[in-house]
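COURSE: Structural Biology Practicum
ASSIGNMENT: Worksheet 4, Part C
STUDENT ID: 0417
INSTRUCTIONS: Below are two proteins. For each, the amino acid sequence is given first, followed by its structure token string. Answer the questions at the end about the second protein only.

PROTEIN I
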Amino acid sequence: MHARCLFLCFLLISIAGRSLIYSDDRVYHASRRLNALEKLNRRNRDSGHTLSKRQSTYEEFADEWGTIEWSGW
């Protein structure tokens, strides 16, 4: 009985840890994409161009930052 309880506790902690790591990873990548788009829009605004989110194309983003996982709008 004691071993079964320890196994269940270990299993629950493992599952919780993996979900936290997965969540942090998604937040990190979303933050990188957002920062890159803000930098691109700031650069274009400073050069006299204003871009909406829809006009900030994937190609412009990829040229500036290389290949990054992209989920679109």
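PROTEIN II
(use this one for the questions)
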Amino acid sequence: MNNQFHAYGKNSIRKQNLEKRMLQTIFFPNKWNFHYFFNMMKDCQQFIIACISEIDHSWIIKLLVLLANAGRKIYLIMDCKEDQKNDELFQAVICELLIESQFKIKIVVNTTKYESLPTNFCVIDGKVLITTSANWTINSFNKSHEWMMLDKKYDNIVQMIEIFEQMWNQFKFVTFINEDIALLDYDDSQFQPVFTYSQDCVVDTL
């Protein structure tokens, strides 16, 4: 009986340790935590899907462009309120992401007047889900008190990929027409089908 309790205790500890490894929370501002997150993105081998309200961090923008030009698939959902459409910083970010990646990066934007994106999250290679209070901005990582949860649980990753796909189809594609930013309806988009990669990449890599 004692041996059974001992074995049960060891198995329980192993399970707890495994769950801890599957879930990890880091906080900002913290330069080491930022580098840890940045290197996770840098190590991407297949794709990044990200639902992030705002992006202006130059390191992250340049990394996304490099990854896209190296053959990684990058899909971004961002907010675009009425006052942002003519905002110079927003336009500069969109221009750099699209033009520097030769339109390999795909972007849709939420233009709903009174509703922001429900949460910030991204999935890297179908191996890790990152949910976070932080936007990918200099202010979020350097000045604000933010958190980031790293989740490697299979079911959670698949669920968020499915949610991302549903959200993607509701929003406006971003492209350029005659050197101006244009927002296209899903049915009019030249980028269909967007998620043909998902069955090949996500299922195989998990």
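ANSWER KEY EXCERPT:
Q1: The beta strands are 23-28, 47-51, 73-79, 106-110, 120-124, 128-132, 146-151, 172-177, 180-184.
Q2: Confidence is low (pLDDT under 50) at residues 189-206.
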